[in-house]
Write a structure and sequence with these properties.
binds flavin-adenine dinucleotide, 17 helices, about 425 residues, globular, alpha/beta, FAD/NAD(P)-binding domain, six-stranded mixed β-sheet
């Protein structure tokens, strides 16, 4: 271990979503001591389906040794059929556009990441950072519940509404860009008897969909609706959020009423405005941001989860390579990812108008496009283009670079287990 690395060993990560545990995984491999503080009282189960696209995403999962587990838990989702008021199919979105190359429920992914990190990571559930005071040697973090503690570095992996970002960079209004869409998602009985499939019903400004989950034993109800200029909602007032959904879908046809009736008793109701995060820089002093906290490309891009995994791999790798020089590591992390993140975020451009068309003509136009998709010459190119974007990064093999250095220096900073990371 080099003298400089001794100075950068403890890393506080805010958020046990996807990016946080993935970062902890790699940091522990490289000999750092990660602590994750998560606001939720326990690991968040359930949730919506997320997907990985292309080699870059999959290769990081493979290097982590969890690709087989993610594959074993994948949803095997088929196409999403758009239906009319009577439930008859009018068009369909192909599975590879809708579900990527490997789709998994977010809760299942969270469990896999937790199991892969829990031995080497200190998890603190039910708490949140309230203040960060940085000096030349480290950062003192204060918490809602725990006593203040010192860390060498702090990473905000706490999502779109990141507390770490607010504390280190200022109020979120400067970085969070609402799309004008809102979304609600919850688990509900699979009352339509869907078999690894989804149904969606589109009316101007409103999309409601259901897809089966966990081998058809349950379903996810999904609402995306336009409410441009709506006043910002209270993120902790679930009853008010449910009233907003019910108001937005009043009088909507198909299965909407039944789904709305199931909403209050859902075990895992999730609601938020759909917003992107745009920042010029993801680090300040000893604090860095990662995942949705830094660059949320919105769920409309289908890239957020893969980006979180890739970003964690790069951030940890650069910290290990920099041997404790966090400023150099953060600069290289941003250089390595900025262009890639921009490309992935661009995938969301214009998607809102397709997903939730604003008027009847546009809704009709969307259906016609999906209907014709299997027959047009550019069939398959949409998924291929998304995959190309997801692959547009050359990932360094940090494990072997570090191993080579270790061999040269004979007894350097690497933890012995890092060899596994370089597979
Ligand atoms: C409805 C929806 C559908 C999506 N569909 C897809 C998809 O199909 N494909 C895809 O790739 N991506 C999808 N995404 C995006 C994907 O979920 C995110 O991009 C990804 O989870 C980013 O991971 P993250 O760890 O950065 O943030 P998150 O997963 O949001 O995790 C942040 C964590 O921080 C915790 N937290 C928040 N505040 C604090 C605090 N103050 N202190 C401590 N902890 C805190 C939260 O509880 C959470 O556990 C979707 C997102 C949504 C909302």
């Amino acid at each position: 271990m080099t003298p400089t690395q001794k100075r950068t060993r403890t890393v506080l990560i805010s958020g046990a979503g996807v990016a946080g545990p993935a970062l902890a995984f790699w940091l522990a491999r490289y000999g750092f001591r990660p602590t994750i503080v998560e606001r939720a009282p326990a690991l968040r189960e359930g949730g919506y389906a997320v997907d990985f696209r292309g080699e870059a995403h999959l290769s990081v999962l493979e290097r982590m040794g969890i690709l087989a587990d993610v594959r074993a838990a994948q949803t095997h989702m088929g196409a999403m059929a758009y239906v009319n008021d009577a439930g008859r199919e009018v068009s369909r979105m192909p599975a590879d556009v809708f579900s990527g190359d490997l789709e998994i429920l977010r809760g299942d992914l969270g469990r896999i990441l937790y199991d892969a990190t829990k031995e080497q990571t200190e998890y603190v559930f039910g708490d949140s950072i309230t203040a960060l005071a940085e000096d030349a040697d480290g950062v003192t973090a204060s918490f809602e519940r725990a006593e203040p503690r010192r860390f060498d570095l702090v990473v905000g992996a706490d999502g779109v509404h990141s507390t770490v970002r607010s504390l280190a960079f200022g109020p979120e209004e400067a970085y969070v860009r609402p799309t004008g869409l809102y979304s609600a998602i919850f688990t509900t009985p699979n009352h339509l008897g869907l078999d690894h499939a989804g149904r969606a019903y589109l009316t101007p400004g409103r999309l409601v969909a259901v897809y089966s989950a966990r081998d058809n034993t349950e379903a996810k109800a999904v609402f995306y609706f336009a409410a441009p200029g709506a006043p910002s909602h209270d993120r902790r007032d679930v009853a008010a959020q449910q009233r907003m959904v019910a108001r937005a879908y009043a009088g909507n046809g198909w299965e909407t009423e039944r789904l709305l009736a199931a909403m209050p008793s859902a075990p895992d109701f999730w609601f938020d405005s759909i917003s992107a995060v745009r920042m010029d820089s993801w680090s300040r002093g000893r604090v860095a941001l990662l995942g949705d906290a830094a660059w949320c490309p919105t769920p409309l891009s289908g890239m957020g989860t893969g980006l979180a995994i890739v970003g964690a791999y790069v951030l940890a790798g650069e910290l290990a390579l920099a041997g404790g020089d966090h400023q150099a590591a953060f600069a290289r992390y941003e250089d390595a990812l900025a262009e890639y993140v921009r490309g992935c975020a661009k995938q969301a451009d214009g998607v809102a108008n397709w997903m939730v068309p604003g008027n009847r003509f546009m809704a009709w136009f969307v259906h016609q496009n999906y209907r014709l998709l299997p027959y047009v010459p550019w069939k398959g190119r949409i998924a291929a283009s998304i995959r190309r974007t997801a692959n547009a990064i050359d990932l360094a093999d940090y494990g072997s670079v570090l191993r080579t250095r270790q061999n040269r220096a004979c007894g350097s900073a690497l933890a012995p287990s890092d060899n596994a990371a370089a597979r």
